[in-house]
Write a structure and sequence with these properties.
By secondary structure, this protein is α+β, with helices and mostly antiparallel strands. The protein contains 5 helices and 9 strands, in the order αββββαββαααβββ. The chain is globular and about 60 Å long. One of its GO terms (molecular function) is FMN binding.
């Protein structure tokens, strides 16, 4: 057992005030994302946690990589038959979370998820390294498998099968776009009086408010 009561950090690297923020949260996200991408020590600025609701009513969270963002939303790719895919199919809401400790910042995004167009999934799939393409075909994601060798043997067989040809995108693999309706930006501040600015979509406009830490 370990007592963690005295593990504390002073947050003092930046601030988040209304006079300096963007009126559109995607533009604010872009600024923070670029900061994270250019900060030494942040190895994957696009790593985000995606939480979905499972059949037993318990949320499940996993890390995925953001692959694109637009004014419409945030795009990532996965196996549609995976646990997250099945959760999204039954409940189209999800929560995305970015945490950049080097900047003492986090972003929490509540969103509705939709599959993107198949041609967009095709385009991204064929832009990936061939090994990653084969990995998507090989893995029956989230299903029980007998052992590691099961995957490695399937990979060897597919490497031979597609040695001189293009790997087709599996029909059960593709992208989702998370269309946000609430985005909260959190900036660590001294004395635990952190800055929390929240954007909430009302009709077609974003309402901006400050939350107590």
């Amino acid at each position: 057992m370990e007592n963690l009561h005295n593990k504390r950090k002073v947050y003092e690297k930046s601030q988040l005030i209304e006079s300096e923020i963007k009126q559109n949260p995607i533009e604010q996200f872009r600024d923070w994302f670029l900061d994270a991408s250019n900060t030494p020590g942040v190895s994957e600025a696009n790593a985000m946690a995606v939480s979905t609701l499972e059949e037993d009513g318990c949320p499940r969270t996993r890390m995925v990589l953001l692959k694109e963002y637009t004014y419409e939303g945030f795009i990532f790719y996965t196996n549609y038959n995976s646990r997250k895919g099945k959760s999204i199919e039954s409940n189209h809401k999800a929560c995305l979370h970015f945490f950049w400790p080097n900047l003492e910042r986090q972003i929490i995004i509540k969103a509705n998820l939709e599959k993107i167009a198949e041609n967009l999934s095709d385009g991204y799939f064929h832009s990936r390294p061939k090994g990653s393409q084969l990995g998507a075909v090989v893995s029956p994601q989230s299903q029980e498998i007998p052992d590691r060798e099961f995957l490695e043997e399937r990979l060897k067989a597919l490497e031979k099968e597609y040695e001189n040809s293009e790997v087709p995108r599996p029909a059960n693999w593709g992208g989702y776009i998370a269309k946000p309706y609430e985005i909260e930006f959190w900036q660590g501040r001294p004395n635990r009086l952190h800055d929390r600015i929240i954007y909430q979509l009302e009709d077609l406009d974003w309402k901006i408010s400050r939350l107590a830490p």
